[in-house]
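RNA 3'-terminal phosphate cyclase: structure, please.
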Amino acid sequence: MIRDLCDGKLNGGEIGSTEITFTPGTIKGGTHVADTKTAGGYYPQGGGEVVVRMSPVKELSPINLTERGTVTKIYGRAFVAGALPIKLAKDMSAAAVRCIRKEIRDLYINIQPVREPDDQAVGTGSGIIIVAETSTGCLLAGSSLGKRGKNSDKVGIEAAEMLLKNLKHGGTVDDSLQDQLIIFMALAKGVSRVKCGPITLHTETAIHFAEQLTKAKFTVTKSEEEDPSNDTYIIECHGMGMINSNL
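Here you go.
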């Protein structure tokens, strides 16, 4: 995908490869299609589609995500497709709600059971995603996938426990979003700060390579504002201030 976006050259870009050589060219606009060739879509057979539309900007502004606020909404979807009955989705949803209710009693929890249309799903699969929205606009989530022989209640409980874990640390982003912000912080102009839970290995890796590839400098410090028992950190970055020369 990146090769196509910039008319570059790529060797070794296939499943099973342990080394790639990438030589970038000039970035250009257009419409591009990327296929992961694995079940990065709809597990276990794949076939999920994501459409992304992007408009270029001259430069990225820094972000300051340090105030989580209070949880105002919890919602999500429990889904089945193919040969699986809607009852499994209802069971996942009910189990997740019961689990969350033990910790959060005063909010309405809306997890919709859904059966994907047969003409849109290429295989049999199931899963659940639950999102918590906060008063400052933060979104934190938990998710889990079903598989043959795995109890549907367990799938729902796994997603609920992941969400509760992400809420407990007091950060503004969940474990899955944490590492994906690193490249944007590195490219932005100015100082970005993000409050998060324990630093994931993905984030450590992203910081390592962002510092190698840009002039950005990252620091990670334990957050002093929180209850000492909370594992909360501040990721700070002095971004390189990259300018889009094509605009």
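Notes: DSSP finds six helices and ten strands in the chain.
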